[in-house]
Amino acid sequence: MGSKNPITVEDVELIGSDDRNGQQKWTDGGTILKSVVYLISTCEHSASANPVKLRNLFFNGRDTGPDALTMQNIWKYCSQGMVTMNSNTLAIYEVKVPCTGSLKVGNNTIDYKFIGRAYETCAVETLGIMVKVADDYVRNTLRVSLTDDQQRILVLPNAISNNCGYAGAAAMAITPGEVYITGAAAENLNIYVHEMSHSYFNLQHSMAINMKTKEIDEYGDDSCLMGRGTYCFNAPQLWKLNWVSPLPGGDLNGTTLTIGRPRTFVLPSQNKNLRSYLRIDPTWVLPEDEDFSPSGGLSSVPAFFISHRSADSPFENVFPAASIMVYTFRGTKQFYSIAYPNREAVIPSKWNYRAPMPYGLVVRVASIIAGGNATVVICRASGDMEYTDAESCSDGLDNDCDGRVDYEDSDCFGAPKAPPLPPAPRPPPPRPPPSPRPPKPVTAPRSPPRPPLPRTPAKQASSRP
C-alpha cells in the first residue's frame, strides 16, 4: 500500500550536446577491448608501476578464480560477458621518452617539455603529445605494430604527476582513445576502468543530488563506476552500451503505461540477467505533434530507468545492500550522445518514489528478497490526489497511484459523488401501420374504335376537248 509521503525529487538540468554523425564502437554482439599501456619514464624519473605487478593486477592467471579482483574479471562481471579483455587484447610496454624534444605531426613540428609547472605537464594537450612520442618509441625502437583501435593508456611517473589535481583523465571522442593515469593511481583498478570507459565507450559521469547541499553532484551516483561507485554501471549506462536490456515487456511509454492502471514487475538483480531493468519513456509530456523517438545526441525528455541492485563483493558494492534505484537519462544509444545519467532515488522495500508532474511516475516497492528478486509496482498518476473532480472518484482508476481506487482512497471521503447518468429517453410510440391502398375503380371497357368511313370514289377528271 502506497505512502502519502514519498521520496521527493528535485528538478535536474541535464547537460549534453548533439552530434548526429557519431558511430558506436560496440555492437550487440559484444566488445573486444583493445588497449596498450605505456609505463612512462622521463626526465630521469622512473616509472611508477612494475610491469609484472601490473600484469597480475590486470589479467587472470591459470589459478585465478572468477571472484578475484582483476581488471579482466571486472569487465566480465560488470558487462555480463559482453566485454572481452585479457592478455591477448591488452599489452604493457615500458617506454622511455625524452624530457624535451620536437615532434613532427603532419607538416608541423611541435616542441615539447615534459617537466615544468603542474598545469603544463598535466594538461591533456601535453599528455597527448607524450602519447605520440610513446607511439614512435614502440614502433621504431620496440618494433611493435600499433592500430587505431588500440586505446592508449599512459601511466605517468610520480614525480611529474603528483600535483596534477586528478587521479586519472581521458581524452574523449578521438581515435585512438587516450587515458592518463597519475603515479598515485598506478595500481588503482577503479581509476583505470573509469577512465577507459570515458575513452573507449564515451560514457559521461553519473550524477546525483547532494542531499546536504541540494545541488547536483556530477560524480554523486555511488551506484555507478562513472560516479563514485566501485566497478559496475547503472542501468542507463548499460542501456546506452547495449550490454543489458529492459525486462521483457518493461520498455514502456504513454501507450503502454496509461493513467491509473498500475503494472507489477519482478526484477532480477541487475548484474545477474541480461534483461533486468525497466525503462519508461514519458511520451505523454510531449506535444502531440512532436516525435518522441530518441535520435541524435539527446532525447526530447528524460527516460526513467528502474533497476534492482544488490551487493555482490568484490564487484558490486552498493549501499544499501539491496534496493531499487531510479534514474533519469536524456542520452541516446548513439556513440557521441553526451548526456549525464542522474540518480533520482534509492528506494528500500515498502517505500515509494513519486516523480513531479507532468511526469507523474510512481514506483512502489512491494518487496525485495535478499539475494533474489524484487517486486515493484509502476503507475502513472494524473496528480497527487485521487479526488480532482466528482468523476475521478468513480472512474475505476487509481488516479494518484497510491494503491487505492476511487472511494477506497481517503481523498474521496466526503467528495460529492458523480450524479447518475440521466435515464435513457423513452422510445417514441410506434407509428401506425399505413392505411391500405383503395382498390382501383372498375371501369367499363372501351368501345371498339369505329371503322373508318368508306371513302367516296373520286370523280375522274374529264379531258378537255
TrEMBL record:
Origin superkingdom: Eukaryota
Domain Peptidase M11 gametolysin: 33-285
Ranges of compositional bias, category Pro residues: 417-455
Pfam families, alphabetized: Peptidase_M11 (PF05548)
Disordered: region residues: 408-465
Descriptive protein name: Peptidase M11 gametolysin domain-containing protein
Species of the source: Volvox africanus
